[in-house]
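INFO  loader      accepted 1 record
INFO  loader      residues=124
INFO  predictor   begin
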Amino acid sequence: MAVSEIQAPDVNRVDCPSRPVLEHVTSRWGVLVLAELRDRSHRFSELRRAIGGVSEKMLAQTLQTLERDGFVHRDAKPVIPPRVDYSLTPMGREVAEQIWTLTRWVEANLDGVFEAREAYDKAR
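INFO  predictor   done
INFO  writer      dumping tokens
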């Protein structure tokens, strides 16, 4: 049964099934994986090198979660040694574009954020 058949999604509703999906794509590692896969497919080791600070365990969990949600495609090739490539699905590409816009905005506006923090801290 589709979600829309039960009740219209509303992310502000505590029991809305959109909340876990939102959490998956906006988690620290979810954002970085989606942004990194935006341009091309990557092998696991390439992703790990590209995304500073992510552990193997967290990267594996994040990829599995994003794959389960339909955002990431895992392509395991039957070769020796094994080769697994990760890429975005069409739905993954769509959400990655949204994430990309957000990450670029954050990078471009860091000075303003730091100024706001400083002003806030001085006022306290």
